[in-house]
Amino acid sequence: MSEVSAAKRLRERGFPVDTGGSVTAWAMGDIVQTYYPGEPALAEDRVNYRFINGFVDVGDLPCRVALWKEVGSRTVELQSDFAVTGLYLPGFNRRVEFSDFWHRPTRLSRWLRTRLVPTVPGSHHFRLSTCGGVHVWVDGVLAARFEPFQRNKESVTEIALPLADHGSEIVVLTEELAERDALWFFELTLLDTTPLRAELPVDVSPDIIGLLKALATDVRPDPMHVCDGRVVLEFGVPVEMDVEVTAQVLPSVHMRGKPPLLDTRGTLKAGERRLTLDGAQFLPDGYHALNLTFSVGETRVARHIAFATFKEAPRDMRRLSLDERKAVALDYMASHGELRAGRAIAALAAGRSVDDAFYEVIGNTLAAIDERRDCSDFVLVPLLWVAACYRDGVPTDLMTAIDRSILNYRYWVDEPGNDVMWFWSENHVLCFHVSQYLAGRLYPDRRFECSGRWGHEQTALAENRLMRWFDSVEVHGLAEWNSAAYYPIDFIGLLALEHLAEGEIRDRARNLLDRLFLMIGFHTLAGVPAGTMGRAYDKELRAGPLTELAPFATVAFGQGWLNDGVAALPMFAAASYSPPAEARDVVDPPVGKAVTAHYVQGHDEAARLVLYKTAAVQLSSTMDGKPGGRGHQQHILDIRFAANPLAKAWVNHPGEDDPWGHQRPSYWAGNGSMPRAAQYGNAALLLYDLGADARLPFTHAYVERSAFDEVILEDNWIIVKSGRGFAALTATRPIVPVETGPGAGIEFRAEGTNVAWYGLVGDGTDADSLQRFRLQLLKTQLELSADGRRAVLQQSDGPLLSLDWTEGLSVDGQPYVFPNRSIDPLIRWADAVSF
Fold first, then answer.
1. Helix (H, G, I), strand (E, B) or coil at 312
2. Which residues face 32 on adjacent strands?
3. Whether 423 and 481 share a structural domain
4. Which of 150, 167, 199 is where one domain is finished?
5. CA 648/CA 626 separation, integer angstroms
6. Rounded CA separation 62/441 (Å)
7. What does the pLDDT look like over 755-781, one tens digit per residue?
8. Are 241 and 209 in contact (CB under 8 A)?
9. Which end of the chain has the lower number of beta carbons within 10 A, N or C?
10. Is 611:618 a contact under the CB 8 Å cutoff?
11. How many domains does the chain have?
C-alpha cells in the first residue's frame, strides 16, 4: 500500500494526528488524590517587597522535597487494568489537561491509554511537554520516563515510541504535586512527517464518540448571563440520539468540600440542540463554574464551562447616608452572605443572635485555619476582628476554639510548616502581616505554638514587616492595580488595621484606603467598578457586577449591586471609615463632560494607567508595559458602558487553547504575548508581535452581542452602541466573527502574528449620532508597517497617532511624554467627545 493511500486510510476512522498535531484521544481512569505534606520545615524568606504580576520562585516546599526524594528511588509498575471512567477527546485543547486548585499539598495521578496506528511501522518521534511527571508504556514496555516536576513550569523533552504495523497500545501515567493552584497536563506532539491515527481502546461506536466530541467542543450557555434563572445549554447541531447530561456547580474555591450548589441531570433528546438545566433558579447570583458530563450508556465525556446568574436588581441608595447604606449591607450579608468569616462580622454587627449558620461559619473558618489551607490568611483576619470586637457576643465554646486556632497558626515562613499557603504575593503578604500583628496585640502574654514566640514578640516582628510593605506600595503603587479580585483582599488587611491598629500603622492604612477608593471611584461607571487591572480572571471580566469589589462601590457611592461576597465588605460596613470626598467626585461625570486620569502603579512603573470616562462610556488602559513578554493576568484595555452593566469589550492574545480554561493567562484574561499599548484621550492602540512560533497565532476581541443595543461589523470595524455610548474596534488584519462553539456571539478574531488594533469611544447626542459615528470611522485609517513594528492611525479631525514597538507613542510626529509619573493621579476635566 502506498504512503498516500495509507494516510487516506488513517482519516477514515479514529482521530488523525498529523505532523505538529497532538494525541488527544484517551480513555481515562479516575484521578487519585493523596494528601502529601512532607516534613515540617522553615522556608526561605524570599519576600523582598518588590511585588510583580507573575510567577514567583518560592523554592522547594516540604511536599516537593519529599517528592524529589521519593521519585529518585522509586520504580513505577505498569497498571494496565484500570477501570475506564471517562474519555478525553480532541476539540478544545491540544494538551491533556487537568489543572485545578487544591488548598493543601496533594499528590495527583491518573492513568490513560490509547492506541496509535502508524502509516509506517517503526520508531516515531514525539515532543513530550508536561507540568508534572509522565511515564509512557508501549505494548507493555516502558518507553519513556520524564519526571521534571517543576512547579507550574512546563518542561519539554523528545521521545521515540516504537509502533507496530497493526498499532500499539499506549499507556500513560500522568502525575503532579499540587501546591495550591496547579498546572497539570501533558502534551504528546508528533514530530515525524508521516501521520498516525489515535484509536480509543473502548468498545464504543464511532458515532457515539463523534457525538460526544461535538458536544464537549461546542457546548456553551445561552445566554452567558442568566437573568431569569433558566440555564440553557446550546450545542452546535442537533444530536442524533439521546444523551444524558449531568451538571454540577460547586461552591466557591474557598468552600470546596461543601455540597454542590447545583447537582442536576437532564436528557438532551435526539433531534434537539438545547437543554434547560433544572434547579439553576435557586443559585445565588455569581459567576459559576459548571461541571458537565455527557453520557451515552456507559461512555462519558466531561467538560468544564461557566456561566453567570444575575437576577438581583441594582440598588439606588444615593439618598441614604453612608451609615444607612452600611446598615443595609450588613443586614443583607447577615442573611445572604457566603458562609465564611466575614458573615460572622455582619451577623454580630447587625445585632443578630448566634444561630446554626453562625456556628457553621465559625466551623468553616476554624477548619481552614487549623488545616492551614491556602487562603486561610484571608479568613483569619476577620476572625481576629470577631475576637477583638465581639468576644462577649460569641458563645464560650466557640471563643475557646477561636483562641486555640489563633495561637496555633503559622504566621510566616520563618515558622515551621508543611503547608502550601501562599506567602509571597502582594495581597497575601499584607494579610499574613496583619494577622501576626493583630494576633500578637490580642494575646501579648500568650505563647504562640508554631513559632514559640510570645504575643508581644509577634507584634514587633509584624510591625516591622508591615512598615516594609507600606514603604513599597506607597512609593510604587500596587502590582494588582484596580483588581476586582484582589482589592477586596487588600481591604481585608487595610480595614482591619484602620479599625484595630494604632499610631503610624493605622494612619498608613487609612491613607492607602483613601487611594484605593479614589481608584475605584475613577473606574466605577453606573455602579460597576471595572477597567484595566493588574490581575484579572474570567469572572471579573465577564461579570463585573458580580465581583466582590462591586458592593464596595454600591455602599461607598450609593448605587450598584450587593452579592454574597463577604471577604471584606462586612468590615467596611461595620467600621467607621469613610471614603474621601475626592473619590465620590469622580464617580459620575455630568452629561457632556469627561474625566481623565493619568498615574502609575506597580514596581518600576509596571503600569502607566490612563482613564477616559463620561456619563455614557469608559475607556481605560495600561500604557507601554513589557511588549513581547509572556503575560500573566494583566488586563490591558477595557471598554465599558453605563446603559448595561454587561456591555463591555476588550482585546487580548489568548494565553491557552481552551476557551473555558483558567490558566494565568487564560483564553480571555491576560495575554499570552503582551502588546505595546497606548491611549490618547478617547482612543487606544495595541500593537502585537506574537512571534513566529506563536501557539495561538491570532488576537481577538470580546464583544457580548446580547449586552448591546447594536453590534455592527462593517468595513473591518466592530461598532457597538449601548445607550448613549458608542465604541469601535478595528485591526490591521481581517476581523472575523466566531459563529460556533464557546466563541459564538462574543468573539471576533484577527488571524496573524503581527497586528495592530485600534479602539475609539464617544458619546451620542441624538438619533443620528450613530450614523455620524460610522461616517467618522470611514475617514479613519489604521496601517501597519511592513515589518510589523509600527502602527499609524490617520484621522480626519484628530492628531496623527503612531505606535512604535520600541519607541512607543508619537502624536503628530512628536514623542508622547506620559504626563504624570506619580502614583498620585493627575485629574483633568474636559468636554466629552460627542458625535
1. coil
2. 109
3. yes
4. 199
5. 25
6. 30
7. 999 999 999 999 999 999 999 999 999
8. no
9. N
10. yes
11. 4
